[in-house]
Write a structure and sequence with these properties.
405 residues, alpha/beta, 8-stranded parallel β-sheet, 14 helices, 8 strands, 35% helix
């Protein structure tokens, strides 16, 4: 099934919190993630903070802005407690309902991305609980995630603006585990709770994806129409998926319809893989690694780059060691290393080469639409404004689709 090329953006940090994108939300606590935030606030204060944040962070005007940039889709990360059935966390299904109404008014589509799982599928702060990765080992929680996916399909499957549902975000696999270095980079608050933490095996993940596909499509469960995509993340190893869902003839088995492969490709990850921290190094890596990779894997599935951005260490003026910030204890630059013109050339260059690489696939979602970190007045955050698409557009770093025509 052919899909229309996607020019999209993520609405991260709206319904799934990331402390570095809105540090003020965590004021008065030592919590680094969403799991521990309600343990350090009274229920009344927690509820007030969360509801105020959700109401103010994204609203109708943001959908109008995204449309005015020439974009056509949003990827919305949602938590496993979206339906409000996992105390003490507060559900957010009403916010997603509003998003669908706004999307339909402004002609945008929505990719629902299940971004977290109980006891986490990756151990990252954005997986809900830092330093813990045990979800795949807990059969009851695996089943719970399947029921969340089913309920999302039942609720939104017939909405005009639904592009698709992404099964689970960034499962941390045996490939990514050593580089992600979860147990060191994301220290567990409770070592006992983290006991048994480890990577997800690809055989298990593939079986889970097939199960989730059928549960989403099955009339008795999700009943997701075939014109809505089922999206799966590559587990940080895109080459694992050439034989996935294939029949004996090597073609996609007829039972699998409208399936999309999502890969997340960041320059900070490229740096961790040895990409030189130079303008030429980035350009060479994108053209000779990313572009042919997207092109080759598009022979097997439609491929979207569900997360990427312009962020890189050169723009920060300091080696960020894979995107670690002042919140991770990294020392950020105190003064700009580049002139505004040099910075514009840097970001325009990496924007051009990455957009060209993604054009070999079926589209992209920039990470992220916005962040609330004050990168101007808060020491150490130089270069982090490149995560914010609105700031990139305002500084002439990113060519909007309407501006590319």
């Amino acid at each position: 099934m052919d899909i229309k090329y996607i020019n999209g953006v993520n609405l991260g940090n709206w319904l799934v919190l990331e402390k570095w994108m809105n540090p003020a939300l965590f004021d008065g606590t030592t919590a680094d993630d969403e799991y521990y935030l309600p343990t350090q606030l009274s229920p009344e204060v927690y509820e007030a903070r969360i509801k105020t944040h959700r109401a103010e962070y994204i609203n109708e005007r943001d959908f109008a802005t995204i449309k005015s940039w020439g974009l056509d889709s949003v990827r919305i990360p949602v938590p496993y407690f979206i339906f409000g059935d996992r105390a003490p966390f507060i559900g957010c299904i009403e916010e997603l309902d509003k998003a669908f109404n706004w999307a339909e008014k402004y002609g945008l589509t929505i990719l629902i991305d299940l971004h977290t799982a109980p006891m986490s599928q990756n151990g990252f702060d954005n997986g809900g609980i830092s330093g813990v990765c045990k979800w795949a080992q807990l059969p009851e929680e695996v089943e719970f995630v399947l029921t969340v996916l089913e309920r999302l399909a039942q609720r939104y499957g017939n909405r005009e603006s639904l592009m698709g549902i992404e099964i689970i975000n960034e499962p941390n696999t045996t490939t990514s585990w050593p580089m992600a270095n979860v147990t060191e980079r994301y220290k567990a608050v409770d070592p006992e709770l983290a006991e048994g933490t480890g990577p997800i095996e690809f055989d298990w993940l593939k079986d889970f994806y097939v199960t989730a596909y059928h549960r989403l499509r099955d009339a008795e469960h999700g009943a997701l129409p075939e014109d809505k995509a089922v999206v799966f993340h590559d587990g940080f190893d895109i080459w694992q998926w050439k034989d996935f869902m294939r029949g004996e003839d090597g073609k996609l088995a007829p039972e699998f319809v409208n399936v999309i492969l999502d890969t997340h490709q960041y320059l900070m990850t490229a740096e961790m893989m040895g990409c030189p921290q130079t303008v030429e190094g980035y350009d060479d890596f994108v053209r000779n690694t990313y572009a042919p990779m997207i092109k080759e894997m598009s022979e097997y599935f439609p491929v979207i780059v569900g997360e990427w951005c312009l962020f890189n260490s050169v723009g920060c003026g300091v080696d960020t060691h894979g995107g670690q910030s002042v919140l991770n204890g990294e020392e950020g630059a105190q003064v700009e290393a580049l002139t505004p013109a040099e910075k514009r050339d840097l970001y325009q260059g990496v924007a051009k080469s990455q957009l060209e690489a993604w054009s070999h696939g079926s589209g992209y979602y920039y990470w992220n639409y916005k962040l609330l970190t004050d990168t101007v007045n808060t020491p150490g955050w130089i270069g982090w404004d490149s995560w914010d698409l609105g700031r990139c557009i305002a500084q002439d770093w990113f060519p909007t689709p309407s501006g590319r025509n």
